[in-house]
Amino acid sequence: QTASSAIKGAIQLGIGYTVGNLTSKPDRDVLMQDFYVVESVFLPSEGSNLTPAHHYPDFRFKTYAPLAFRYFRELFGIKPDDYLYSICSEPLIELSNPGASGSLFFVTSDDEFIIKTVQHKEAEFLQKLLPGYYMNLNQNPRTLLPKFYGLYCVQSGGINIRIIVMNNVLPRALKMHFTYDLKGSTYKRRASRKEREKSNPTFKDLDFLQDMHEGLYFDSETHSALMKTLQRDCRV
Predict the structure, then answer these.
(1) What is the protein's major site of localization (predicted)?
(2) Does 98 lie in the same domain as 123?
(3) Residue 138's domain is classified under what CATH number?
């Protein structure tokens, strides 16, 4: 519990510092080198000339591609003040992990953003994906890819905790009748007996094929737009 509290506090302090610091940097076009920039700041518990004092262990906070992600947030209509208020004004809420990845999930108190811990390889892959992601957002505004708002790393006590901030597509107040986690594979893709016994189980691909054997029906215009979007997204 203490470790989780320290992680959440460090995330809030780090994002508060880095996003606030960005306001002093003028708006400009995103350049190719912006996707590979990594900014780092040390936040000692006693504070410094640049950072506030806090009750957590000393930590270093890294921000990946800050100008590129600022552009993405603007494109998605996320204002800096709203981003900071959602993430930093109230304690983050830890969610029970619904998947097998071992990641930690946090949600902001207003249900706007999901914060997920990721492995080094995942963070590295996302950073390599950023130029293609940028092109896709500009050419395909209807994209169904996740909305990525930030990629960060908390370093403390020799441990690196990498996180991504995304849009929360499943707010807690929304009543879900059925939930399916679809990956496009049928190998070991059936919900376990333990999962099925839950009050709101998450089903998988084989369950979907069994339960929705007639598929989902769309009007021709919606179907055409959806297929075009999926095809474009798959090229990223």
Answers:
(1) cytoplasm
(2) yes
(3) 3.30.800.10
Range of the structural domain that residue 91 is part of: 3-167
Assign 116 a pLDDT band (cuts: 50, 70, 90): very high
The candidate with the shortest Cα–Cα distance to 2, out of 56, 45, 53, is 56
Summarize pLDDT for 132-168 with one digit per residue, the tens. Answer: 999 999 888 888 989 999 999 999 988 999 999 999 9
Tell me the whole-structure pTM to 2 decimals. 0.86
- The per-residue pLDDT for range 1-46, each reduced to its tens digit, is 457 889 999 999 999 999 988 888 888 899 999 999 999 999 999 9
Helix, strand or coil, per DSSP, at residue 179 = strand
Rounded Cα distance between 188 and 199, Å, is 22
Tell me the residue type at 64.
Y
Q: Which of 111, 145, 167 is the last residue of a domain?
A: 167
How many separate domains does the chain show?
2
Give yes or no for a contact between 53 and 188, defined as CB atoms under 8 angstroms apart: no
Identity of the residue numbered 108: T
Instruction: Compute how many other C-beta atoms are within 10 angstroms of the C-beta atom of residue 229.
Output: 16
Last residue of a domain, one of 122, 141, 167: 167
Any domain includes 173:
no
Query: Are the C-beta atoms of residues 185 and 205 closer than 8 Å to each other?
Result: yes
